[in-house]
Amino acid sequence: MDEIDGGIRRVTLPLPTRPGHVHAYALPGSDGWTIVDTGLGLPDAKERWARELEELPGPVRRIVVTHFHPDHVGAAADLVELTDAPVAQGRLDYDQCRLVWGGEDWADVLVDWFASNGVPADVVRELIGQGSVYRPFVRYQPDPERLDPGDVVDGWRVVAAPGHADGQLMLHGDGVLVAADHILDPISPTVGLWPRSRPDPLGDYLGALEAAAALEARIALPGHGEPILEPSRRARALIAHHAERLDATAAALGPEPLSGYDVSFPLFGDDLKPAARRFAVAETLSHLERLVLEGGARRIEDDRGVAYTSGA
Ligand SMILES: [Zn+2]
User: Which pTM was predicted?
Assistant: First the structure.
């Protein structure tokens, strides 16, 4: 556990995949500590957290989950067992958490969805296999307290941060932004289109980056990587990055219909492992859908699936 800013503690937890770590934060408060995020629910997650919590002077009063991705929500139930503290999670985010981790049919939904976006049948199986490796390591807490943007948690304002996950939330107070995976540096957070999610995640993300930049926070504490000084500047750099990626996406289109899978090759290269291709396809689709809304691409949908042409 490291002390970083204004008495805030940072807990760095291991991830078996890149970037190799995820940060949780402990925020000091009037009545005890608020833990933000929980790490992946690896087999030793509870023992690891027990050791970390010994260093914390005072009780944990609540656990905030910023979003339902496995490296953030995964050990929530372990932390509840250790602390007896309630979990607070975004209202929309918890719905998606239950949909993805609580349902039996999510893999089937993904299979159909990737197939309709041009992924060949044998490749779909590889992509889905990669996705379900995390399932045993997600122990979310059922029926948490629901948070909405604008709520206040022990003095911290809850801020919407859609894009990386539709219902992702951040905490903002005293010039500090607990940023989850909304603003990372040097990583560019993945912004993918997924089934049964909001229709324009990249549009949501760009809007939320503008809003985050307007906060003019002094420092952002991200889910991965070191604290970010001048987070507004980083938010604007991410906006510029996606403008370039939108241009590259438009340039990959022509008069012949191409699927999201097809377009992921010029955008992300030919040589990706299945797990990376899965995110590449989802990210390509978020850019294609934004282009459609901007008039830079056209979507063609028929019984074989979804494809795109240039907008002209
Ligand atoms: Zn993350």
Answer: 0.96
